[in-house]
Amino acid sequence: MSTPPAPARPARFSLAVRDSSTMLRRNLLHARRYPSLTLNLLLTPIMLLLLFVYIFGDTMSAGIGGGDRSDYIAYIVPGLLLMTIGSTTIGTAVSVSNDMTEGIIARFRTMAIHRPSVLVGHVVGSVLQSVMSVVLVGAVGVAIGFRSTDATVLEWLAAFGLLVLFALALTWIAVGMGLSSPNAEAASNNAMPLILLPLLSSAFVPVDTMPGWFRPIAEYQPFTPAIETLRGLLLGTGIGHNGWLAAAWCVGLAVLGYFWSTSKFNSDQK
């Protein structure tokens, strides 16, 4: 008896799109029904923004050579926007770990669905949540005095593209962390560097004001070039070589996270 022909590529593609959309809706509904984790992670950058602006603003502004608190607001907001992405993706690691440990993934594997759609739903949902979180934190920044009047439309579009690409990269890393963690608590702990690294970057003070032994740590990590690039785009100033470094970090982390996540997910199916 002859074997049936393999499904046509368009049919496979439509199946992948349909199942990925279903998984995306599932993750967005889950986030809407259980918003406490997202809100708790979102409060961290907002509280840091208010703390550093209203408590340390005048002192920090003088430290970076600014004239008043508004100069420090302009300096700190870009870093906290990227820190917001790191905070949001911690929730992704926890969500993926919950799916792996609560048995829902085993149920999905018994169904006729496109297997990668499970991860795609998590990734796309997390990127959308990251963008919405950035908008909220950005609105708080505007409310307390942040302005981007010198940026052109092209720079605004480039800044948005950087935020989305950075969110995509960190999300794939967070998915890998969630798949590699035995439970949700471990996933949350493993993903903590995504919110701690901005504290060790140029988000709050320039790198050249840090101790000499610490500067390489702050300079050669993914957040610093991304922050400097976003700051230059939003304020209409030069970005130098930071744009290429930020793009390289984003692409490298996204590729690493993708292969790590898919390899771990596929090995767990055996």
Q: Could you characterize the architecture of this molecule?
A:
By secondary structure, the protein is mainly alpha-helical. It is built from twelve helices and no strands. It has helices spanning 9-33, 36-54, 57-63, 69-101, 104-109, 117-143, 153-180, 184-190, 193-196, 215-219, 223-235, 242-268. The longest helix has 33 residues, at 69-101. The protein is elongated. It starts with 8 loop residues before the first helix and ends with a helix. The mean pLDDT is 83.
Q: What's this entry about, in short?
A:
The protein has 270 residues and is mainly α.
Apparent shape: elongated
> From N to C, what is the helix and strand string?
HHHHHHHHHHHH
Label the structural class.
mainly alpha
Radius of gyration: 20 Å
**Strand residue percentage:** under 5%
The low-pLDDT segments are: none
Distance between the termini: 30 Å
Q: What is the average per-residue confidence, as pLDDT, rounded to a whole number?
A: 83
Q: What's the number of helices?
A: 12
